[in-house]
Amino acid sequence: xSALSTRFQRHVGQSLSVNDTDLSAMEHLMTNGPLTPTxxxxxxxxSTAATTVMVDRxxxxxxxxxxxxxxxxxxxxxxxxxxxxQEAFATLEPMISGVSRVTAALxxxxxxxxxxxxxxxxxxFRQAIPTAD
Length: 133
What we know:
The chain is mostly helical. It has a single domain (2-103), classed as Arc Repressor Mutant, subunit A. Helix content is 71%, strand content 8%. It contains six helices and two strands. Strands 1-2 form a two-stranded antiparallel ribbon. α3 (37-44) crosses α4.
């Protein structure tokens, strides 16, 4: 499953013409909304200089743009472009629809077992990952 997940992530990155770090940044932006470059740097675990280069690259590809921060005139935020979000979801849609079909076809009892199992596995992952200070 892990190998398939990695292959699918690579497929999404290739469809957007981005590398793994760029794709991770796009995921953060689409999930959390506009972020400052510093916030992106912290979330990705890369330097601010590397973040600047990455944002420049994503801007050149038309995936993001910079806007003034709503409350602090000294800052900017990085915002995903609507076209890029649409392109990403178009690539994800077949997988999302397929998983939805499988989920809908499960009998209620099986669905409850799968839900409990996945919830417990997610809990194990969360406990194994150190929290940020």
